[in-house]
């Protein structure tokens, strides 16, 4: 069956994305060659320029693809518990721990900020903050955490988790650093909770 033009365009774009993601994950942004990953995709530089503009444009698209996958994974984690607070903690801690995964570590937390700048300014940042803010608002409305501005709290939680992940990713000993980061991050999150009266 003959494929439509749109299907062929989508296929070309996905081939470039996959080849770029593999190269960025294995070699890093600086060492990844446009000629290498266009050749591996069986395409030309012209195709890369047409779909993504340049190497940085392809990298930004790879970051967006990985970010969408991470978001889906984290939502799945929080949905697996009936305890709203525990789901919130599990989801945020899981984000920090993604910095131990080689591909995510290199692309999202090491090369990402170096190539694309401050993660809080990335296109997806506002969506992430809005999602965390909704969770915080629900926890507040359920009486599980202190009365706090959801957006302000979400920005602080997001900044802490992002900073912790970057610390792990750039550490000489990521495993050891992750244990320190997660322990302290959980303590920070616990500060949001309303203490229950033990006499009740």
TrEMBL record:
It comes from the Bacteria. Residues 10-70 form the HTH tetR-type domain. The keyword 4Fe-4S does not apply. InterPro entries: Homeodomain-like_sf, HTH-type_TetR-like_transc_reg, HTH_TetR, Rv0078-like_C. Keywords: DNA-binding. Pfam families: TetR_C_41, TetR_N. Signal peptide: none annotated. SUPFAM superfamilies: Homeodomain-like. Residues 33-52 bind DNA. PANTHER family: HTH-TYPE TRANSCRIPTIONAL REGULATOR RUTR, HTH-TYPE TRANSCRIPTIONAL REGULATOR UIDR. This is TetR/AcrR family transcriptional regulator. The lineage of its organism: Bacteria, Pseudomonadati, Pseudomonadota, Alphaproteobacteria, Hyphomicrobiales.
